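Problem 3 from the worked examples.
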Amino acid sequence: DDRDDAPPTTKSTLKVEEVTAKSKSSVIGAVPDKRDRNSLVKLNQRISTLYRLSELLRELENDSEEGVLQRVLDVAFGGIGASRGVILTRFHKESENLDVTAVKYRDQPITPQKVSVSRTILNQVLKDKVAILTKDVKIDDRFNTSESIVSSNIASTISAPMIINGDVLGILHIETSIDDTPFQQEDLEFVSIIANEVGVALANVRMHKESVHRSRLAAVGETVAGISHNVKNILLLSQGGAELLSRAIDRKDLDGARDAWQVVSRGIDKIGKLVRDMLEYSQNKDSDLSEVDPNDLVVSIAEEVEKQLTAKGVTLELDLDESFKPRLLDESGLTRTVMNLIVNSLEAITHKQGMISVTTNQRADKALVISVRDNGAGISPDKLEKIFLPFFTTKGSNGTGLGLSMCKKCIEDMQGTITCESTENVGTAFTIIIPIQTEA
């Protein structure tokens, strides 16, 4: 407190810019005389405290604020002789309320005492953004009205703000008892720097969490928009069929009613497929690995799509590495993926002499490589970078936009990768690479 009527040796303040300057120069005061053993011990303690503090603050990102700040208080006690300490925080800079986040006693009482801190001092720290040292609370009028503080044998206190970008995120408050040596100016500087370091770390973690939260909200918004777009298109199809069905019934046109019902039925099937795809895509389950021969899997898929290929006049060529032995794979997921890629290629071929080729081979590191190529319409560059995004489709109302997203998820669940290269009016090639799995 810089008031004229305050004893100069009783109260002291330290502004945030002074703390920053000291942080850049010397955070522990002047180097003591080599003959002063106590000063050397104290210096060593404070260096150790700052080192432990820096290590501890790295844990803030992955741990709760309360847990880390409690350990911060434990570490701070190692660098300064205090009988009690408390960290108070507030989440929003506009908030006037400070929540007790961590409390520490040097001699922990059987029943923890109620935390009593001078509201006048806290308000001054928040308002003026200064660290405050009170060397003797008995002659400081800011403590006279607090009987609980006087009765708890407090001798001196330090209250230091945790500031970032001019905002006070919280306050580090520590005290000595009447049996301890009162805090001095160098103690004020040391505690202020600790509070400053904690404030920076706390702000960084909160900004990171806020960024993650915004990203999640954006992802939810994109998902809802994708679902809404798909459902809207399907409903428009079904509503059109329902109107035709209603007119056919009014005319007692049984054949027309059957045709209209087929339109409605297709809409119901599309809704069902969309729901199933969404549920499957959202499931966070491990791959069900089993011994699978990749070549047998590809041949089985080829036999299953043979009729579709023949009906459209498309040739399917298989180039399979016969050196393969059964290996651990998610048979169901890989089957769906390769099947999806072949069907997509089939739909992309709109000309005669269409061709799809599927090859398997093994790299030097024994990774499985499966390629699916076609000579279809290809994909434009602006769409190519989006094809694996959920709900993105080049098929209009005929696709849910989850097929390739599910393929990517399935392959990545096996620690593999799937990539795509495409040239418009030339064709598209998907490449799957799955590393060797050693155990299920």
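Problem 4, a separate protein:
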Amino acid sequence: IFVADGYGSNHVLKFDKNRKFVKAFGGPGEADGKFKTCHGIGLDMRQGKPLLLVCNRNNNRVEHWDLDGNFVKVIQRNLRMPAAVHIRGDYAVFPELQGRVTVIDKEGNIVAQVGDNPEEKQRANYGLNPALWRAGICNSPHGASIDKDGNLIVAEWSQFGHLHKFVLNK
């Protein structure tokens, strides 16, 4: 069991199958292998061995860690506060709290970015008035998944509740 404690210690916590604490890894900082709000995590099986995929939200990057808590590599930098991860097939989707959603392939290449909000004042804006929302533009993506047809479903961090569906063009 792995828990991202980004709002507390900035460590990922590892527990065994009996819920006994095993270790903490990462820790606060900006260097590779350190966290500044480790937020969403997922088990990534796309590399042939299990790795943790960690959203290092306020360092604006996503990273791979092995299951023993060793830093492996930065997968993608210069994101806009990646908040969560969902993996389906060869793709991982990252809702970025600052108004965008990024999809990467198993090699770590960006294959799509959708919902990009050009208005910086609207990004990561929990109280943004719904009258300012625009179809296809994200304000504060916080959760996302890829459905069975390859469409992206995105949930916004908003006091009013807001969902998007980006349909895959085939």
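Solution to problem 4. The radius of gyration is 16 Å. The CA atoms of residues 32 and 74 lie 7 Å apart.
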